[in-house]
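subagent[fold] <- orchestrator: predict structure for attached chain, return tokens only, no commentary.
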Amino acid sequence: MRIGLFGGTFNPIHFGHINVSKEIKEQFELDTIYMVPSAIPPHKKRQEVADAQDRLNMTRLAVSNLDGYLVSDIELIRSGPSYTIDTINHFSKILPENTKTYLILGMDSFLEIDTWMSYKELFTKLPLIIMSRPGTEHVKLQQLKTYIQEKISDNYWFQEKKNCFLHQTNRSIYLVTVTPYDISSTEIRKLIRQQKPLQNLIPEQVEQYIRSEGLYI
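subagent[fold] -> orchestrator:
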């Protein structure tokens, strides 16, 4: 079994999240992608983020008609701070022993990974899939090499054929260019406040939920 963990604030979830996850799912032949809504990050203003239950509900609605998608509330129900390393350990306990699990990250998040709790341990646990998203095209391969070798391990080397960084003992870091979707949750919240249409930005059932619950007004 092959599993992908796709985390995010999902405030709200939109077609950008969904479509790039579909691309990753197909390219890596994943059986299931777990969408994992995150707790409110400390650097985000609380008033800008919908309640955890609302974000969980919207995420469930967004993938309810998609095959091979599940939603995990592990980061929302965990008491105290919620760290990615804890989430990975959680899945390693509940998934079958022969499961191959990937952590899916955007380039922007990856380039801040050295600020995460126990971040070096992540690379001993599972392979990472790093997506190039709009606004991150400026990140050159040499910059990535420098970052990985300085912040993670200087024993990583790049294999061009697989477009990934390899290590003798740590797990691989795959680089994937996904279709750019110029959609952001920030822009969607702005459109909601302006009472403008959200067609082709978020699933219809998510828009209905936002309207009925009066979110982001």
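orchestrator: received. Logging for downstream: The chain has nine helices and eight strands. Residues 15-27 form the longest helix (13 residues).
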